[in-house]
User: Which sequence fits this backbone?
């Protein structure tokens, strides 16, 4: 599948972001079924843009449903738009079971996709992670040392396509799994073995999110070996995104553009 928003042309670099344009925007939050007004002085916003705001709904993603450039307000009465989600996707994807897959590292980088699920981290947020020397073979997840209950819940997450995004660049792996919120899983993969496996759910042991990612990784690498070995060998990396996720963010809500199957 190739999706090309109309402000891109094949083989051309993306246009620079437009200059900020002050506006008062109506933002709809589907999760709360609420539409509220926000002041914007940082971005050039349009209907359909997905954004994050400050205030009581901080952390929730909303969609701009109206933009007003003709206004006079008391700024202190309004919360602000603090980030715009980059939903522009341009590149070639291949079928891979429940996911689409690309072998171009520039098409769907982790830094872009994570904003589809989580608000940008604040400057004062600091996270530190560490790992031991535990390693296990990907083809034998019984060596992962998880309880039967966690293994079962992780398998259910995998079967429910909760691994929304998975990438492997060289030996470095990253995934996003949705549960009560979006969780980030990181790992190293080399010589068929997994190491340095961590999850942002902050469990002190291997969790269901990690189990789901390992199952998805094993399936995806198997499909790549059978169908796309040459493409993977050429770049040494891949990114896989759940089909519904790609359409929800890169296609749904767009008022212009085209895609080709």
Assistant:
């Amino acid at each position: 599948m190739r999706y090309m928003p109309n402000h891109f042309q094949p083989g051309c670099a993306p246009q620079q972001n437009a200059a900020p344009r002050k506006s008062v925007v109506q933002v709809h939050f589907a999760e709360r079924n609420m539409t509220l007004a926000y002041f914007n002085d940082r971005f050039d916003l349009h209907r359909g843009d997905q954004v994050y705001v400050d205030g009581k709904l901080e952390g929730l993603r909303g969609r701009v449903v109206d933009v007003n450039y003709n206004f006079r307000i008391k700024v202190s009465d309004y919360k602000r738009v603090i980030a715009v989600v980059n939903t522009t996707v341009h590149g070639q994807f291949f079928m891979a079971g429940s996911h689409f897959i690309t072998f171009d590292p520039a098409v769907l980088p982790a830094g872009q996709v994570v904003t589809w699920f989580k608000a940008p981290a604040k400057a004062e947020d600091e996270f530190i992670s560490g790992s031991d020397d535990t390693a296990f073979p990907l083809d034998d997840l019984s060596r992962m040392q998880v309880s039967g209950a966690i293994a079962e819940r992780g398998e259910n997450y995998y079967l429910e396509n909760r691994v929304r995004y998975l990438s492997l660049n060289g030996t470095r792996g990253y995934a996003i799994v949705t549960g009560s919120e979006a969780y980030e899983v990181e790992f190293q993969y080399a010589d068929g073995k997994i190491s340095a496996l961590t999850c942002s759910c902050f469990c002190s042991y291997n969790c269901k999110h990690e189990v789901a990612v390992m199952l998805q990784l094993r399936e995806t690498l198997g499909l790549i070996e059978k169908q796309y070995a040459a493409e993977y060998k050429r770049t040494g990396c891949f990114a896989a995104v759940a089909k519904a996720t790609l359409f929800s963010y890169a296609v749904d809500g767009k008022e212009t553009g085209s895609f080709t199957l």
About this structure: Residues 91-251 form one domain. The longest helix spans residues 208-227.
